[in-house]
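$ ./design --mode recover --in tokens.txt
reading tokens...
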């Protein structure tokens, strides 16, 4: 850390309307009553005290605005038309977020014109069949948290057609938009903010970070991550039973993680049954005296079974000649590392003359579509509630984050400036290596 970051948040104008949320708190700690949050309430981004007190920092750098209900709001609830959309891949908790956005808008603020935009950004563009707008109220969303997936549907792409999206926002007289999505989706939201500013439109655009891979920065964790780790851990348990019950049994499990190996790392720690974990941030080799195959053979000879967890983005160096193009979100399409490893492991042991029984499991889409676990459901509700508070106060161009156990406002420019990656020098990765007993490096000397 230690870099200069400006966390100043855009606002649409002065907040002069008393909030419909009536709080009895006096602002005095210990009076046992909740109180409003002011823009002056901030937390430190960098907790390393050595990085503070440096000269030349711009206003807003190093401190982050706290989320929560304001005493005065910018929007008159009777004049609000709010929109909600979900973009990208499925993630546990999407419906929990939608539900709480609607309930907070309607029941806490009295906003009764709420529109769900179906099929992500494409719902604004007129390129999807049928009606892409859906009226939402507390009755419509009452039970959706019990379901996986997204009530509004989702899709990739479309966010680059900014002018057309803002045209639709204008036609709909929409002055509040909640965008639920990951890095690419929030880049699209930032472009919308800039276009509305260029046109002089007063539209609050609030991002809610959604990435099951936990690869968005400036948040303690993304929603759906705990559910994903829980479901993946169940899968690893099944793979372990298969491997343990066979002669020279190998269980190979592929989990999500295009750029970041958090699900693979945390699942391996949680399950206690994993022997090797492969993630995008840590290179590895397959052959040679310090390659995966040699260590895997030694494990089989000693213990008769082994479990490997691999993140989907690991081992890209094994597909150097492949150009698979990009998906609609602009992400490079990946070769299937799970199937690749399955074939290479089988071939290597066959050539070595060592009998194995290999079982391969890819639970990715089962995990993505799961109902949120209680911890994630609670987290989603709090993200959504604070997103509504921010929008009603005229905040825009920001997303809601929980950072250092506090809900805060993060400017979109900062939020999309980098990805959250597993640091191979971090305590997390050290704990993984030590818990699994795997080599720190599986590469051979040059």
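writing sequence...
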């Amino acid at each position: 850390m230690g870099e200069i970051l400006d966390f100043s948040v855009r606002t649409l104008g002065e907040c002069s309307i008393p909030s419909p949320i009536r709080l009895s708190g006096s602002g005095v700690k210990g009076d046992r009553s909740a109180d409003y949050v002011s823009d002056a309430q901030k937390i430190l981004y960098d907790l390393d005290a050595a990085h503070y007190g440096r000269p030349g920092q711009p206003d807003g750098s190093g401190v982050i605005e706290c989320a929560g209900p304001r005493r005065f709001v910018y929007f008159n609830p009777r004049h609000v038309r709010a929109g909600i959309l979900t973009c990208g891949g499925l993630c546990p908790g999407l419906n929990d977020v939608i539900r709480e956005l609607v309930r907070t808008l309607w029941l806490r603020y009295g906003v009764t014109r709420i529109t769900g935009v179906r099929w992500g950004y494409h719902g604004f563009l007129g390129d999807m069949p049928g009606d892409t707008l859906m009226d939402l109220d507390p009755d419509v969303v009452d039970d959706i948290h019990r379901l996986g997936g997204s009530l509004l549907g989702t899709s990739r792409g479309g966010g680059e057609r900014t002018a057309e999206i803002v045209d639709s926002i204008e036609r709909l007289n929409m002055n509040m938009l909640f965008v639920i999505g990951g890095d690419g989706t929030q880049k699209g939201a930032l472009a919308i903010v800039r276009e509305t500013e260029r046109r002089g439109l007063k539209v609050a655009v609030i991002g809610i970070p959604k990435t099951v891979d936990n690869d968005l920065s400036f948040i303690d964790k993304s929603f759906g991550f705990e559910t994903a780790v829980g479901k993946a851990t169940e899968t690893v348990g099944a793979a372990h039973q298969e491997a343990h019950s066979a002669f020279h049994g190998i269980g190979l499990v592929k989990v999500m993680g295009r750029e970041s190996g958090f699900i693979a790392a945390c699942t391996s720690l949680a399950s206690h049954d994993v022997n090797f974990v492969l993630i995008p941030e840590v290179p590895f080799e397959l052959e040679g005296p310090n390659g995966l195959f040699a260590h895997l053979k030694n494990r089989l000879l000693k213990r008769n079974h082994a479990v490997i967890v691999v993140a989907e983005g690991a081992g890209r160096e094994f597909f150097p000649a492949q150009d698979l193009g990009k998906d609609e979100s602009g992400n490079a399409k990946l070769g299937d590392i799970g199937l690749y490893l399955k074939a290479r492991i089988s071939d290597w042991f066959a050539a070595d003359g060592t009998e194995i029984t290999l079982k391969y499991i890819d639970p990715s889409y089962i995990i993505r579509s799961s109902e949120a676990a209680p911890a994630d459901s609670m987290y989603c509700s709090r993200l959504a509630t604070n997103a509504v508070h921010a929008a009603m106060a005229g905040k825009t161009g920001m997303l809601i984050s929980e950072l250092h156990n506090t809900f805060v406002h993060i400017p979109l420019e900062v939020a999309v400036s980098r990805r959250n990656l597993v640091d191979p020098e971090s305590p997390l990765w050290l704990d993984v290596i030590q818990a699994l007993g795997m080599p720190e490096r599986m590469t051979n000397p040059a």
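exit 0
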